[in-house]
Each structure stands twice: as C-alpha cells, then as structure tokens.
Amino acid sequence: MTAERHADQEDGQPDAVASPPCSMHEVDADFAGLSSERSGENLTRWRYSERKRLIAARMALTVAEREAHAKRVARELDTIIPRKDGTIVSLYWPFRGEPDLRPWMTRAAAAGLRTALPIVLAKGQPLVFREWWPGARMERGVWNIPYPADGAFVTPAVVVAPLVGFDAHGYRLGYGGGYFDRTLAGLNPRPIAIGVGHPVTAIASIFPQAYDIPMDWIVTGNGAPARGAKKAAINAS
Fold first, then answer.
1. Of 14, 97, 127, 166, which is most buried with the most CB atoms under 10 A?
2. Contact 162, 95 (CB under 8 A)
3. Residue 32: is its pLDDT beyond 60?
4. pTM value?
C-alpha cells in the first residue's frame, strides 16, 4: 500500500530497525523525559524511539508466526465486518512485518465485498482509495509499495489500517506521516476505522494529541477484537 509508510521522515525509505527493544513504554512520562504536555520535540523523540522498538519486535517474529498471526487477524475481521454485497473495505499492501491480509482480500472480493487500497498523492495530503480486485494490474508508488494502476477511485465504508503500536483507548501509532489521521478527519461520512497489528506492539499510551484519531476497533489476533474509544458498531451498507 502506498500509505503511511515511513518510520520517521517524510521523504525516502524508513530507517533501518537496529535498536534493541526497551521498556521505555512502561515508565512514567516525566521519568522518560517527556514534558508534562507530552507534546513537541519530546513527544516526537519518544514516538521515534517507540516506532523503532515496536517494528523491531514484530520483525523478530518468524515467518511461520507471522503467517499464523495473519490468519487469526483475518478470522477476527470476519466477525466484525459484515459480508454485505457492495460494501467497500480498504486494506493495505503488507510492509515490514505487517499482517498479510491479501488472502482475506481475495476471499472478501469473492464474497461480494468491494476492496480498495490507499494511495499517497502528495506529501501532507490525505490518501485516496482505488478499487482493487484479484488480478488487478499493479504499479509501484511512494516507498515502492504496489497500488492498483486502474479502476475507480472510491470512498470506503471501512478502513483497515496497519498499526505500529496501539494503546488501550484505541489510539494508533503509525509511521509518523499522519496520512491516516488526515484522511479519516476529512472523509464524510466517516468510515469505520479498524487498526490491525500484533499483541507485542501494545503500549500503555501513545500520548494522543488533538490530531490523533482513535480506531473504532483494534484487532490483534488474540481472539477478542477490542472496540476503541468510540465504541462504534459496524453497520456498513
């Protein structure tokens, strides 16, 4: 997917993950060096460090572990996304250890759902969504991630977004570009937002700011999809 794809910079590839896991997410914000406002440069540095730690944690999983986890996530998506013909669900093309939901996309399309992938048009701009189907011709976009080369631009009723990290209130830590937050804030009607990731990337808080938008659901493959802060039910039509 050509979406929120960089770790800490707007241009170029994500930084390599070399830092070892740490317990910074478990300590008090002030002790960790965050300001009482949990904003500004201190927050930026903390999120930078957390991204490295959390990406390293999921990249440390074996291929077999990732495949098994993706299947569990797919089963949980089946329990919360209704199979209504014509419902448009946006997903993502997997990147750096993210759950690979391409088999789920294929099955969903066969069941009558319309599937889409997000596209980055420009830095600092919201994402757009183009319809995807099995066998669709793909091109490579920003950060070399495939997107549908043809097809209609659509507005999804459900957006499935990959998580770098997440907290108990449904807030999502992404790659730092703000693409998903910017997109969700601008869509009307607002789609249902589902964050998917690994249980190992749970953190106490992302220290959300005014621009951070909580997910309606968090799905981690642990058998119990969690509703986010909005307690939204999916009723896509």
1. 166
2. yes
3. no
4. 0.79
Q: What is the pLDDT of residues 66-84, one digit of tens each?
A: 999 999 999 999 999 987 8
- 68-75 long-range Cβ contacts below 8 angstroms, 24+ apart: 69/99, 69/198, 69/221, 70/99, 70/100, 70/101, 70/103, 70/221, 72/221, 72/222, 72/223, 73/99, 73/101, 73/196, 73/219, 73/220, 73/221, 74/101, 74/103, 74/104
Structural domains of the chain, ranges and CATH numbers in brackets: 64-227 (3.40.50.10420)
- Element containing residue 129 per DSSP (H, E): strand 128-132
Tell me the two tokens of residue 124: 């600092």
Q: Is 118 helix (H, G, I), strand (E, B) or coil?
A: strand
Dist CA 161 CA 158 (whole Å): 10
How far is residue 153's CA from residue 129's CA, in Å, rounded to a whole number? 6
String of DSSP letters for 68-112: HHHHHHHHHHHHHS---TT-EEE-----TT----HHHHHHHHHTT
The phi-psi region of residue 39 (left if phi > 0; otherwise alpha if psi is between -120 and 50; otherwise beta) is beta
Specify which residues 130 forms β-bridges with: 117, 153
